[in-house]
């Protein structure tokens, strides 16, 4: 078998390590998750008797993170012949190496029931030897201890237990820093990486990071340089990731919000509203595509619901309307951004796990910081906020029902 292996030299020490704990903090785009997935695929194919458990706080978020990364690693390594080597069950989220029976499974630790299930994991062949905890800062130390306790018992010669944790270092007060980075332990390898050491990152990504460095120096330290940050100044805390219904009939109303972009992201999301709560159902998000390209990809964005758009782009709004969508501009009155945020803060936001870019934005959306006065301002940082702009636009018909009715469209509340 010939394998085309693409790797960053910065992870060589990690991939050769046999210590029990590998703790990897890194910036966005550092390649840590891609390297981890690739390493696990090769390890499980090489070492008979190994089995991997992938963990996120919420189990369903594995589908668009660990499961997607591992699938991608298999496809990149083996191309069209991947099925000769790996069995992949997409609906059940299971993977099995065909040559030795080693398996990969995916779990969450959100509640007591999920934690209890971790204690009863068994495999047809071999034992649970490896755990990948993605977005590890989501977990509590108690969650980690339950997982760590599962790796015990004698192993055949040549095998070893190992937990690999990957995350963005969002808070310098997090237990992971205190337990793994602030003290020396011979069983621990800590590792830091940034997008600057990832040779596969494209030039456009570098330009976006340079822009962030200019407009959001504090955020750049964490998400650009992988340095420990802090959670003060976050705008929204009233949200969670969970499975939500995709049936529009289950909601009091459904609307679409779109923030136009090219060099910064274009974000189009579908929102549901029910019993005073906001539901983020699905969406499109990406860079450097013109309006016609987004329209070509928008098959799942409903045409019979109001699409609230940035009023600064009347030509794009007209193009979407001509293509059949009910696109309308949002009226931007003075202080409207703060008013929209205050309205959202008074509700709970439920986010479908497939909306990965939306989640990345909401978990780091922050107020501007005035370093001279040492205070946060009532103004969001104007960077990496395109999905958040879509959210602000999408709720306008519910925040101001008369504005919704004035469009002449059905669905005002």
TrEMBL record:
Residue ranges of the Phage terminase large subunit N-terminal domain?
19-227
Q: Which Pfam families match?
A: Terminase_3
Entries under InterPro entries matching the protein: P-loop_NTPase, Phage_terminase_lsu, Terminase_L_N, Viral_DNA_packaging_terminase
- Classification via NCBIfam families: phage_term_2 (TIGR01547)
Q: What is the protein's name according to its record?
A: Terminase
Source species, please? Answer: Agathobacter rectalis
